[in-house]
Amino acid sequence: MKTLLRGRLLTFHADPAETEDNHRYIEDGALVVENGRIAALGRYSDLAAPEMVEIDHRPNLILPGFIDPHIHFPQVQVIASWGVQLLDWLNRYTFPAEGRYADPAHAEPMASAFLDLLLAHGTTTACAFASVHPASVDALMSAAEARSMMMLAGKVMMDRNAPDYLRDTPQSGYDDSKRLIARWHGRDRLRYAISPRFAITSTPEQMAAAGALVSEYPDLSIQTHLSENHAEIELTLSLYPHARDYLDVYETYGLVGPKTLLGHCIHLTPREIAKMAETGASAVFCPTSNLFLGSGLFDAEGLRRAGIVTAVATDVGGGTSYSQLQTLNEAYKVMQMRGQRLHPLAAFHWITRGNALALGLANRIGSLQAGGDADLVVLDARATPAMALRAERIESLAEELFLLQILGDDRAIAQTYVAGRPMKPARAA
Ligand SMILES: [Zn+2]
What we know:
The protein has helices at 44-47, 86-99, 104-120, 134-146, 170-184, 204-216, 230-239, 246-252, 270-279, 287-292, 300-305, 324-337, 344-359, 385-391, 397-407; strands at residues 2-12, 23-34, 37-43, 53-64, 66-72, 123-129, 150-154, 156-157, 190-196, 221-226, 260-264, 282-285, 309-312, 376-379, 413-418, 421-422. The protein has 429 residues and is α/β, with parallel strands linked by helices. The strands form two sheets. Strands 5, 6, 7, 8, 9, 10, 11, 12 and 13 form a nine-stranded parallel beta sheet that branches. Strands 3-2-1-4-14-15-16 form a seven-stranded mixed beta sheet. The longest helix is centred in the first third of the chain and has 17 residues, at 104-120. It is globular. It starts with a strand and ends in a 7-residue tail after the last strand. Zinc ion is lined by residues 70, 72, 225, 263, 315, 318.
């Protein structure tokens, strides 16, 4: 059966920070959805046909669903934990919370709650760190499969500098990852991501095991953390005394390439910047987390000019919101502190097609394209009294997007579609 969604369509085919011809906007637009895919898109008057069920989202905007390329699923009860910076925050709050995910009776309801939160905030795909326990990946992947979501996730590999109950070994981390890849990668819309947590929590032997997985499964994404905090960098270099710098730890074990997502990348050296540009590894900006943990100000403009692929993510639970709109709000402010400007078109490109490119999934998600997956978000720029008042003085699409970016959150998400299915109850008129 075909469904026609009517609304104001916005999609990007190039980065507004790089190219003048970058987006397509159709004021009275229509998307024809069939079998979870976009069968056609264009003007409503060209596509309307009597046999289709119509859902009218006017005057709201319809965009590709948001993509969150760095988030920690076992931190849903860690978000908003007070008073410390990265390493103490991990030890005091995060590690004890992650310990509970060995138990499926805890992991399963948390996985459902986590995915429902993402959908309520307009996010249809995420690349998530699970806990060290295979049960946590099973819980998350099962819940994503039940919702038909395109989801990437992996168990963190961590064999030192963590409590006993959160440590695997080089061999068990490798074996468990392999079993999970066989069970989940490529099933329905699911992808496995190889996930050494970060250099501090892995021995050289475990890094080598992660590298072995990468060479066995070259099409998998790799996710980890890089240069978030000065104490973290110092400790990393003391644990890997032969490394030229932090990135060199990952390079040494074959973990840096175009499929690699490096969270944070705040305090990079010129050599690291050049190497990331050369290898095509992505730098993932996590603005709410970087401010919350006092980590520093990401140099979005500088890294982009150096030729590095950048992505933008919530990093819940170091991050303070599941909303990619609120993430863009904080990204705008971080860039202001660096004298850089984030144009609203570039911002919305970033959380859709930009993040899809970083994940290597732009042929399927991140833009409205015939044949692409029907993962969509419907945005209401008048969702709250304050937004409605401001919207009265809006004169352009860019102004409307900026209003959504600064004042919007889950209340501005009128609907979220996953593979053509509405996943959020429609708001009362
Ligand atoms: Zn993280």
